[in-house]
Amino acid sequence: MTFTMDTNRDCARAWEAMPSVLQESASPEQNVWLMDHLAHCESCSADYAQQERLRLALSLPADIPVDPAVGLKRLLARLDVPLPKPVVQRARNGWLTRALAAAVLLQALAIGALGAKYWSDNTNPAYRTLSQTSAPVPTGALHVVPDASMSLADWNALLHSLNLQVVGGPNDVGAYTVVPSGSSTAGSPVLQKLRATRGIRLAEPVASAP
Amino acid sequence: MNDADIQADATDRMLLERMAAGDRAALGVMYRGYHGRLCRFLSRLTRRPDVIEEVINDCFWITWQKAGTFHGDSRVSTWIMGIAYRCGLKALRQHGDEPVDEDTVPQERLPSHDPGDDRELRDWLGKGLEKLSVDQRVVIELVYGVGHSLDDVAVIMQCPVGTVKARLFHARVKLRNVLPSLAGEPARLKEGAP
Fold it and tell me: Where does the pLDDT of residue A88 fall: very low under 50, low under 70, confident under 90, or very high at 90 and above?
């Protein structure tokens, strides 16, 4: 059994070594070992003989004659032909670049037009930011909070008697903004009268915005 | 690489340098020097002489254009065989298995009659090679015919050495099984090797 395994291993080694020995590129030791193995292994010897014959057959000159003189003449003529310039590729690249530039220009114009439109429309925006100044308050304006039980007729009569008119409110706390009507002014007497009137819970001058 | 190989490579490098400088005479010397082995190598890919000539000329046209860019990473012969291999594969893709039109082959190009032994040997080889794939034929030709090392073949075919070894192994096993032996015995049909 051992003999068979060793033999198989040696045959595999011989099979592996055959190409390099045939190429004469094997080491002298490898060469000697293979020749020694072939001397007592009929199967590997037959394989080696076939490989030798294969190498001999492959070393025969080509059986399809191709005249080198004719081929070389054609090659030299071909060298004289100027190399085709990659005109098509260059043209395609140029076209692509121009198209991209045109698209970018078109986008820039469109963005500019939109910007101009919004700029002109936004002179009086429908909102006010915290950084903007408060709406102007008329001079002499007062905040007045009437009592809930005060009738509309009494409220109107009071405003009429003091030459006041409502310009704003009521706000969240029920305060109205009132200003003197016509050319009259809402001075300290008007404020005192409002405070003294029954049904008026609060009367204060409007402080100017900070 | 033996002394003869070293000497041949030095000559090839000198020719390549002259070609890079535009010397057409150097191109002619190299063309004639490689023509025989390229013909035989390419005849393993196609049987059409017009295609073989076209591939050889494509190969040397590229060699002429790229002569100045050769860095010497391999032998010149390995570099040229690699170019020829790729040109050959390209030609195979273009021409496929188009049959040879004998009328288009000039009379002087038709194979001359071999001496009896050579003819018998060629027939014997032909029976084996026709059972191999293109890659297996190329490896067999480069190793047994041209005498390249497995490392060189890997460079030529642009694949790992292990792939070359596998192709060579399977090609040899297939040839051993299909080729009649020297004594005229029927071919052995063992698949496992050795």
Answer: low
Same fold, B1-111 and B113-194: no
**What is the rounded distance in angstroms from the CA atom of residue A186 to the CA atom of residue A161?**
12
pTM summary value: 0.62
What ipTM does the predicted assembly reach?
0.80
Question: Interior CA angle at B95 toward B81 and B47, to 5°?
Answer: 65
Smallest CA–CA distance from A25 into chain B, residue: B1
Identify whether the C-beta of residue B56 lies closer than 8 Å to the C-beta of residue B83.
no
E strand segments, A56-185: 142-146, 164-168, 176-180
Residues listed for chain A:
210
CB pair distance less than 8 Å for A46 and B143 = no
Nearest residue of B to residue A76 by CA position? Answer: B24
* pLDDT digits 0-9 by tens, A95-138: 888 899 999 999 999 999 988 887 776 666 666 677 766 666 77
Integer Rg of chain A from CA: 56
Q: Is A76 exposed, middle or buried (0-12, 13-18, 19+ CB in 10 A)?
A: middle
Q: Which tokens in the block code for residue B113?
A: 């009659």
Domain boundaries, chain B: 1-111, 113-194
Collect all residues of chain A within an 8 Å Cβ-Cβ radius of residue B125: 54, 57-58
Instruction: Name the packing angle between helices B49-66 and A68-80 (round to 10°).
Output: 50
CATH 1.10.1740.10 fits B1-111, yes or no: yes
Classify domain B113-194 at the CATH topology level: Arc Repressor Mutant, subunit A (1.10.10)
